[in-house]
Amino acid sequence: MRKIFLIGLGAGDPDHLTLQAAKAIGRTDVFFLLDDGEPRASLADLRERIVRGYSKPSRRTVAGRSPADSQAAERMLAEHLKEDETGSFLVWGDPTLYDLSPAILEEVLARGTVEFEYEVIPGISSVSALAAKHRVPLNRFQVMTGRQLAEGWPEGVDELVVLHDEQQAFAAHPDADIFWGAYVGTPDEILRSGRVSEVAGDIAKTRADARTEHGWILDTYLLRRPRAH
After folding, report:
1. Which residues lie below 8 Å from residue 177, measured CB to CB, with a gap of 6+?
2. Residue 165 and residue 149: Cα distance in Å, rounded?
3. Do the beta carbons of residue 222 and residue 141 sit within 8 Å?
4. Which of 85, 94, 170, 188 sits between 20 and 30 A of 74, alpha carbons compared?
């Protein structure tokens, strides 16, 4: 039966690759190297180096766009992975945090056209790397998107992890403390922190300048209501 690994590569630092991930890469016959269309050459080069460094010489690669639906993934598996082979999807960060790959594979399995078993190999997410950089524990944070934050701060929660905030919804909360990072774990890493009212303008400019320089931006932040004294 086909075997699939969803391998978390970490946030971008080669040292974030776990031993479990390295072993799974070494067992892989076919790598599905998928991108979402953003010009992220530096990350693509890093991924290629990781594959070359830990994979077997006979491995094959299939390049393409990230499948937007389970039918696209089903076709890729049927066409490129033999019955007794192992294939891997390489996912930045952790495959279980804001990634659609597990849900897509579950849909493929439910249809029963292509039989396989799959395993998720956890990785260090950008959220974990960002929290470590700012030395902030995550045990009380709620994960949400920028779009959700724009609808209002959730009731009964004081600490947030915010992903994919193109509209910079944090600006509506000037009294909160923000711990922001872009390209976390890579050589281009940028970190900012402070009261939103004091650093929002700097973050907005830094973010815009970085997008212009690199052609893309991958950032996230922690947001915390000020603690009562």
Report:
1. 193, 194, 195, 196, 223, 224, 225, 226
2. 9
3. yes
4. 94
In 146-198, where do the E strands start and end? 159-163, 177-182, 190-195
Does the predicted TM-score (pTM) go above 0.90? Answer: no
Q: What are residue 10's phi and psi, to 5 degrees? A: 95, 180
Q: Compute, in degrees rounded to 10, the torsion defined by CA atoms 7, 127, 181, 42.
A: 0
pLDDT tens-digit map of 155-172: 999 999 999 999 999 999
Q: Which two tokens stand for residue 181?
A: 């990072």
> For residue 204, what are the contacts with CB-CB under 8 A and spacing of at least 6?
168, 171
Q: Between 19-26 and 41-54, two packed helices, what is the crossing angle to 10 degrees? A: 70
Residue type, 176: A
Per DSSP, the residues of 95-106 read TTSS-SHHHHHH
For 169, the token pair is 């919804």
Tokens of 149: 């934050």
